[in-house]
Amino acid sequence: MADPTTTKNEKKKMKVFQWLFLILVPLVLAIVILFIVLSMLGMDPIGRTKEFANSIPVVSNWITTDEEAEIERKQRQYENKIDSLEEELAAMESDLSSKKSEIDQLNQEIVRLTAQIENTIEEDGEEESEVENLAKLIESYDEMNPANAAVILSNSSSQVALAILQEIDDAHRAAILSAMDPEQAATFTEQLLD
């Protein structure tokens, strides 16, 4: 046999469920119909409901309005853009560093080449002045008395004397060599033949 208190509790539970069913189903149906009618009239019942729920302090933590969703979407978009720009900046800084290094190397090469050009110009200038000086010396020896020229060339270095003797005319060279000491004249003659 069934316990009468258990049966009473079960009947109470059934009545509560019946009342809930009788109240909840029509209420949900009425809310759905209201939302459909308001949507057809051009009102935004879902958006307004979210705004209303967002104004309630505790509920606002759970509900996200369209504005907040748009703000979050834009924030994510901007954060992604910032990340890509930071990566691009890092790549550009790396490229700039390598370009600076390349510029430094090229500047060093310019300095080296400039010094090389200056040295070449100085050497060319020295060679030109040496050639000019030698030409003047040869002209002086051509006009000089052979005996005086022999004495001066005998006291000069053999390279200078040989260079001068090679460039003066044959008759004057013969006169200078004949005025020199015979051993020295013989040495110069041999060097002139080589």
Compile the SSE list and pairings.
Elements: H1 4-40, H2 45-55, H3 66-143, H4 146-155, H5 158-167, H6 170-179, H7 182-193
Brief account:
The chain has 194 residues and is mainly alpha-helical.
Give a quick set of tags describing it:
194 residues, mainly alpha, 3 domains, 7 helices, 0% strand, rod-shaped
Can you give a write-up of this model?
- With 194 residues, this protein is an all-alpha fold.
- The protein has 3 domains: 20-63; 66-122; 144-194, no CATH class.
- The protein is built from 7 helices and no strands.
- Helix 3 (66-143) packs across helix 5 and helix 4 (146-155) crosses helix 6 (170-179).
Integer-rounded radius of gyration: 57 Å
Largest sheet geometry: none
Q: Classify the helix fraction into a percent range.
A: over 70%
Strand content: under 5%
Tally of structural domains: 3
Mean pLDDT figure: 80
The low-confidence runs, each spanning 5 or more residues with pLDDT under 50, are: none
The total of beta strands comes to 0
What letter string, H or E per element, gives the SSE order?
A: HHHHHHH
- What structural category do the secondary elements indicate? mainly alpha
